[in-house]
Task: structure prediction
Amino acid sequence: MNVTLKLPDELVRNARHLAVDENTSLSAIVTELLRLKLKASAQSKDTPQSWIDAFSSDPDDAFLDRDFPLEDRKTIPNREFSFAPDDE
Result:
């Protein structure tokens, strides 16, 4: 779809330089920025800002379907353990 936008000259000039540096088009740069902005906007509306916000919201909320990041098990040091009785 073709769209006409009015943008400041210096902004367009800088964006064109960026497009050349990245070996892409001005349209691709604008498309990528719009997608990032829309994705961030959608996430900020859907994602609770903190655990307190999440747990104080309606239980039927989409929070229950969310994955919260957990610590990577590969970064946790191995714990020493033994099957021997403690009194030895």
